[in-house]
DNA sequence: AGTTAAAGGTGGTCTGACCACTATAGAACG
DNA sequence: CGTTCTATAGTGGTCAGACCACCTTTAACT
């Protein structure tokens, strides 16, 4: 029996839209034809067109505004990463994996922020720690949220936030109080190389396989 | 005027499916409820359910077989990558975020694998490098896939794979040939502390993503 | 018991019908 | 003339129902 490919309609629609964008040289912000137009032009049902568009929207390739239309968007993988990560996180993470991965990200963020953080911002970090209104776990989140923002790496921020959200559902993870103070101290004394050691010192536990 | 969030139905369906998977502890290969069942259970139209499923399919999270059903898949985002690569506008900021995040993960994996890797496995790494059938970029993937498996941290593996797939859609990233050799050497000589320096040395300034 | 045909379940697709929202043309007003 | 308001048309959002193609299961037949 000849196994014809038999691609689904929405795949074809996807391809057509792609070609349309290329042919008309559409740029982010430009408007796509309406769903009804596309369905008519491509000789497909509107529902099939929508399946393709919805998938594109979920990936962040387009944005839709009710009553206005569908617009090409400036693609960034962050949205996709966020979506996929949410599945990855729920499906296979053990507590240990999660804690260790989170630690790794926090450590690297601390190092990346090193060269980008100034005295004024170090003061902000101190203020976070001094805020007695917050619980320890809240301080941890606020502290590292600030640090991660300094890395100027939106992708890193997104991944960490997801893991933070997820881990909070299972357990509150934070370091000893002195840890944060010492990290600030390293920022002040410009001791980049000690950051790695600081993390190792405060987190060597059963989760870390290294000997 | 109260601006209600007004999330679209297919977003809700997506979340419900995610929760269903978690609650029932579904594993790759397991069957999801039929589209009609889902529509009925979630009180949504079948077309809305399909929009969510189609998006998941495009992401490679599920596979659908006509006449049989919808099944949870072992996440392999190749299809996504292929699709996205034709839409992606290569933004430098995005690329930099990706490359840096990937590097961080690879470095930490290399360190985590340190204590878990034995002589036999070091030999395997050498074999990967020696395989002349592969392109450099393929060697990179094979090499680090092996390293990541040694970390015994499934979450780390998944996140790295995600980064790897995305970066591959934009640009092939790998290190100089000598980098891999030197890393192996560090495994042999048990020089844990030099791993960090090795990565810093080979990845300072611009990243080399040559073909 | 083995084979075959019918029935039911599932995804794939289309159509038509509403709804909610937005932009716009044209009427009404000052 | 210009402004404001309003009816209308266009757009995405959603649903229900109807087929089709395909697969599995069941039942009937030999």
TrEMBL record, chains A, B:
Ranges where the HTH gntR-type domain occurs: 7-75
Alphabetized UniProt keyword annotations: DNA-binding, Transcription, Transcription regulation
Classification via CDD domains: WHTH_GntR
SUPFAM superfamilies, per database record: Winged helix' DNA-binding domain
Descriptive protein name: GntR family transcriptional regulator
Taxonomic path: Bacteria, Bacillati, Bacillota, Bacilli, Bacillales
């Amino acid at each position: 029996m000849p196994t014809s490919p038999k691609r689904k309609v929405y795949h074809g629609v996807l391809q057509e839209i792609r070609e349309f964008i290329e042919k008309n040289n559409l740029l982010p912000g430009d408007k796509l034809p309406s769903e009804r137009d596309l369905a008519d032009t491509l000789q497909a049902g509107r529902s099939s067109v929508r399946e393709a568009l919805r998938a594109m929207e979920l990936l962040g390739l387009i944005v839709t505004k009710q009553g206005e239309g569908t617009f090409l968007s400036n693609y960034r993988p962050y949205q996709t990463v966020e979506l996929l990560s949410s599945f990855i996180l729920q499906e296979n993470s053990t507590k240990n994996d999660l804690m260790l991965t989170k630690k790794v990200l926090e450590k690297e963020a601390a190092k990346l922020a090193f060269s980008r953080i100034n005295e004024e911002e170090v003061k902000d970090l101190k203020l976070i720690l001094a805020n007695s209104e917050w619980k320890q776990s809240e301080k941890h989140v606020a502290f590292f949220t600030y640090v991660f923002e300094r890395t100027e790496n939106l992708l890193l921020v997104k991944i960490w936030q997801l893991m933070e959200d997820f881990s909070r559902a299972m357990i509150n993870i934070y370091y000893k109080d002195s840890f944060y103070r010492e990290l600030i101290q390293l920022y002040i004394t410009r001791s980049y190389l000690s950051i790695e050691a600081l993390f190792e010192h405060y987190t060597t536990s059963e989760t870390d396989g290294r000997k």
